[in-house]
């Protein structure tokens, strides 16, 4: 009987560890915006005039390393999911910007080494562009920061932040518009590694990150909605109930009670085997 108890306990532990490892190594893009922020242009300023100490350099590089590792971990294998393309482009731009800034001072944190989340095993051939009048072909979308503004700005209709005073319908429409905007703007800055447009890309990607955080905070199920964030407690309410401000404390308590009962019953069953 003692052996049987240990056998089942080990089996439960193996199952738990399996799911834990699986969750750790899968795309968790909606959590990437919670990562520590990378060093800013102001943080870099002291290095331009050789006025920094060794401790400041270590702190600068350590901050950048934490950001890069966290974002790559959250984005792990997200390139395999086409529905994340727009948001993924925004985060990739952020990684590239960090690479430009960190690569000057921190070994191993610049260039192609900054992006480590991709799981695709096949690579596309280099982009080819013909100069004939008949056709122009390209395997990758171009960097078009200005086009992002022209094509995508009307989607938000000048509503640049979430307002709690909006009607339920306006809140629903804004959350949908944010998703559409990220998809639209993201496709225009996917390959913006050109130094000449760095400031423009940084400004756009900062705004994209800002409205994504707004959506994560205020929208039903966060930026990606309840179709992807099924464990989000906000999804236990209907969209209209959530946006109307109905409290979901009771839903949270019910969820805790359900899990408590489940583990209690499982423990009692295992002990009496």
Descriptive account of the structure:
- The chain has 273 residues and is mainly alpha-helical.
- It has a domain at 17-120.
- The protein has helices at 2-24, 41-44, 54-74, 85-102, 145-156, 168-186, 198-218, 239-243, 249-271.
- Helix 6 runs antiparallel to helix 7 (198-218).
- The N and C termini lie close together (7 Å).
Q: How much strand?
A: under 5%
Number of helices: 9
User: What would you call the quaternary organization?
Assistant: single chain
Strand segment tally: 0
Low-confidence parts? 18-24, 122-140
What overall geometry do the principal axes of the alpha carbons give?
Answer: globular
Q: How far is the N terminus from the C terminus?
A: 7 Å
Biggest beta-sheet profile: none
Write down the overall mean pLDDT: 75
State the share of residues found in helices, binned by percent.
Answer: 40-55%
Structural class: mainly alpha
Order of helices and strands: HHHHHHHHH
Cα-based radius of gyration, to the nearest Å: 23 Å
């Amino acid at each position: 009987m003692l052996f049987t108890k240990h056998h089942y306990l080990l089996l439960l532990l193996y199952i738990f560890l399996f799911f834990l490892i699986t969750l750790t190594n899968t795309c968790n893009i909606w959590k990437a915006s919670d990562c520590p922020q990378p060093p800013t242009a102001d943080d870099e300023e002291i290095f331009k005039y050789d006025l920094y100490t060794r401790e400041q350099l270590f702190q600068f590089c350590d901050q950048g390393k934490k950001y890069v590792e966290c974002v790559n971990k959250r984005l792990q294998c997200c390139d395999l999911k086409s529905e994340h393309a727009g948001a993924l482009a925004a985060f990739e731009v952020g990684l590239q910007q960090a690479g430009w800034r960190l690569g000057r001072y921190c070994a191993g944190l610049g260039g192609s080494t900054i992006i480590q989340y991709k799981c695709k095993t096949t690579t596309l051939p280099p982009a080819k562009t013909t100069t004939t009048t008949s056709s122009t072909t390209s395997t990758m979308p171009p960097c078009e920061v200005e086009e992002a503004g022209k094509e995508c700005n009307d989607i938000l209709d000048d509503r640049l932040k979430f307002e709690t005073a909006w009607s339920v319908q306006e809140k629903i429409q804004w959350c949908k518009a944010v998703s559409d905007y990220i998809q639209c703007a993201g496709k225009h800055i996917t390959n913006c590694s050109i130094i000449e447009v760095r400031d423009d890309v940084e400004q756009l990607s900062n705004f994209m990150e800002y409205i994504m955080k707004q959506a994560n905070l205020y929208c039903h199920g966060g930026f990606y909605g309840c179709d992807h964030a099924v464990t989000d407690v906000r999804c236990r309410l209907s969209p209209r109930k959530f946006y109307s401000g109905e409290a979901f404390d009771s839903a949270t308590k019910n969820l805790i009670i359900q899990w408590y009962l489940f583990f209690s019953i499982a423990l009692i069953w295992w002990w009496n085997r």
